[in-house]
Every structure is written in structure tokens, then in C-alpha cells.
Design goal:
two-stranded antiparallel ribbon, mainly beta, elongated, about 250 residues, disordered N terminus, about 45% strand, eight-stranded antiparallel β-barrel
């Protein structure tokens, strides 16, 4: 009897040890994590009133999401970066707009919303790809900085004007260096591809994220200029915007 009990004990220890050493069974993690932290960086592109406003800038972002239900998240995002444009033969204006922004976003994963987790136990690469596709809609406040030397100004040329802070003793305008604006809508389209979602022991996992963001400003000041023609008439054009293409990583817990 002693030897039988000893053998049973050894068998139990052996099985427990084997369970610790083997990988987590495939598709045991159903993706129920409620919190997601994403960070990354990428390239920005400004679209304004200038002849050549397509120079690339750079930006960094940090985003926190909370899962409301399967396939639907709400979160906040902050950005820190630059928007740039160079002069051309027909337009001597240039700008480097250093900015930071913060806003709130709602993000939907259409495949997860439609399937509602039914693919959890058939987690093929196709399903993983489809479940990672998302779209988002948000609103952000943005603070723009136009330091002297980073933007072309000439008090004698109306089309180089921006918002005026005050007039100096000679009656010449001094332009604002900081401008607050609103970005709405701010639209995200992207892919969050899980790396270890169904092999993690803790339920926490990493994802690789590729994102394209389209930010539409509520005015024409993203490039720092107010559009006037040579006859001092305000030109009614479309509002400025910028795009932000980024790569990042997400941690879900």
C-alpha cells in the first residue's frame, strides 16, 4: 500500500509538471481583456492653403482603450508631433507646426461585432486578420506652436498673415505663436494583429498595430495662415487637415 500511494503521488507530480511545461491549449484565451494600451510613432502630412504643403512630419502617440462590449471600445489618445510644409517657386511660405493633441475615440471591430466571439475556437490566420480590422471616430483638441523662424511672415503680404496677437508701436501686426483648434471628425482605420493572444499563460497579450488617421480641423489655421488674396479679401476655402500613418504595439490586459 505504501508503494502504491508513493507511485500515485509521483504520477500526480509528473502530470502537474508536464502541464506547466506545455503550451497553453490553442484558443483558450477568448480575448476578454478590458484594457488596451497602444503606443507608436509615424509620419504626418499637412494639407493646407500652401502650394506645397505635403512635406512629411513625425509624431508619437499613446492611447488607452476600454472594452465596452465585444468589438466596441472607447478610449483617449494623445499625440505629440510636427506638421511641416516647404516653400515653392510660386509660394514662399513655409511652416513647421509643432503640436500636441488629446481626444476621445470610439473604436469598432466589425468582424467581432458581427460574429460576436463565435470564431474563438476556430482561430485561423484569416479570422485573426479579420478580427483585427477596426475603424474609429473621435474628436480632439489640438494646440499648435509657430515659433519665429518656423513660419514665414511678412506684414506687407496679406497672404502670409495668421491670427494677430497685437500691433506693435509701428502699427505692424504681431502674430500669435500658439493657436488652439478642434479636430472633428478624427477618423482611424487600422489593423491590430495579435502576437501571442492564444498562447499567453496570463491572458495578457501583445499586438502589432498599423493605423491610418485622418484629422479634419474646424478652421483654416492648421498651417498657420489665414487665406487672403492680394485685394485684402478673405478667401473662403476648405478647412485644413492632416493625416497620420503610424506603426505601434498594443498591450491588452
Amino acid at each position: 500500500m505504501r508503494y502504491l500511494l508513493f507511485a500515485i503521488l509521483l504520477l500526480n507530480l509528473s502530470v502537474a509538471n508536464a502541464q506547466l511545461d506545455c503550451p497553453v491549449p490553442f484558443a483558450t484565451n477568448k480575448g476578454d481583456q478590458k484594457y488596451h494600451i497602444t503606443t507608436g510613432m509615424g509620419l504626418t502630412k499637412l494639407y493646407g492653403d500652401m502650394d506645397k504643403s505635403g512635406t512629411m512630419g513625425t509624431a508619437f502617440f499613446l492611447k488607452f482603450d476600454y472594452k465596452l462590449l465585444t468589438g466596441l471600445h472607447i478610449g483617449i489618445e494623445g499625440q505629440l508631433g510636427s506638421l511641416e510644409a516647404i516653400s515653392s517657386i510660386v509660394d514662399e511660405r513655409y511652416v513647421t507646426n509643432n503640436y500636441y493633441s488629446g481626444g476621445i475615440f470610439v473604436t469598432a471591430y466589425p468582424y467581432d461585432l458581427i460574429v460576436s466571439g463565435k470564431h474563438s475556437y476556430n482561430y485561423s490566420f484569416k479570422n485573426r486578420l479579420l478580427s483585427g480590422i477596426y475603424v474609429g471616430l473621435g474628436v480632439s483638441g489640438i494646440r499648435n506652436f509657430y515659433k519665429e523662424g518656423d513660419i514665414y511672415r511678412d506684414p506687407n503680404l496679406l497672404y502670409t498673415y495668421g491670427p494677430i496677437a497685437y500691433y506693435d508701436e509701428n502699427g505692424l501686426p504681431v502674430f500669435k505663436e500658439k493657436i488652439n483648434s478642434l479636430l472633428f471628425p478624427a477618423v482611424n482605420v487600422g489593423l491590430a494583429l495579435p502576437i501571442n493572444k492564444h498562447t499567453t499563460r496570463t491572458g495578457r497579450y501583445w499586438s502589432a498595430v498599423a493605423n491610418a488617421q485622418f484629422n479634419f480641423e474646424n478652421n483654416e489655421l492648421l498651417d498657420g495662415y489665414i487665406p487672403y488674396d492680394q485685394n485684402s479679401q478673405r478667401i473662403q476655402g476648405s478647412n485644413d487637415m492632416y493625416t497620420f500613418y503610424s506603426l505601434g504595439v498594443r498591450y491588452s490586459l
